[in-house]
Hints:
alpha+beta; GMP Synthetase, Chain A, domain 3; 3 strands
Amino acid sequence: MNAMPTPDSIRQAIAQGLDCARLEVDGDGHHFEALIVSAAFSGRSRIDRHRLVYAALGDRMRQEIHALSMRTLTPEEHAGAAPPAAAPGAAAGS
């Protein structure tokens, strides 16, 4: 029987199969969220990007990982991402 997947084990599996500029994985052992930034995504649809990640994970996606929410971006898309919203109650200038 395989051990329960961890965010780190998923991160390592993706990194081994896909060249990533940035890779973050968080989760509780059953449900995971990933931010994956890779030049390999350039010119590809969201479905094709997800297929690249699934290929990197191989059989783990079918056997061990039950829920993986992915945000797949090119480095250019990630660089242009909106900055975090201001904290509630913060003044918007003086």
